[in-house]
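Ops channel
N.P.: pipeline sanity check, posting one input/output pair.
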């Protein structure tokens, strides 16, 4: 597999994962908005923090892929 193919696969996979995480963040935020107990709010807030961190990681991967493509050319 060439570097370009590998970069394209990484980009496609990271894009898909980012879409799923964004959807999960939206669901989690919605549930957090409707949570009535402190425990549920704390738990969902922790989950949201982890998901947000993952989202930033995937965004960093996506930002780096054009650099990989340029190096492969």
């Amino acid at each position: 597999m060439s570097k370009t193919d590998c970069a394209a696969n990484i980009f496609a996979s990271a894009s898909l994962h980012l879409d799923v995480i964004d959807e999960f963040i939206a669901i989690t935020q919605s549930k957090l908005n409707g949570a009535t107990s402190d425990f549920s709010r704390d738990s969902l807030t922790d989950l949201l923090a982890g998901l947000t961190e993952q989202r930033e990681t995937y965004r960093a991967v996506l930002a780096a892929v054009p650099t990989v493509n340029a190096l492969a050319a």
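N.P.: looks fine end to end. The mean pLDDT is 88.
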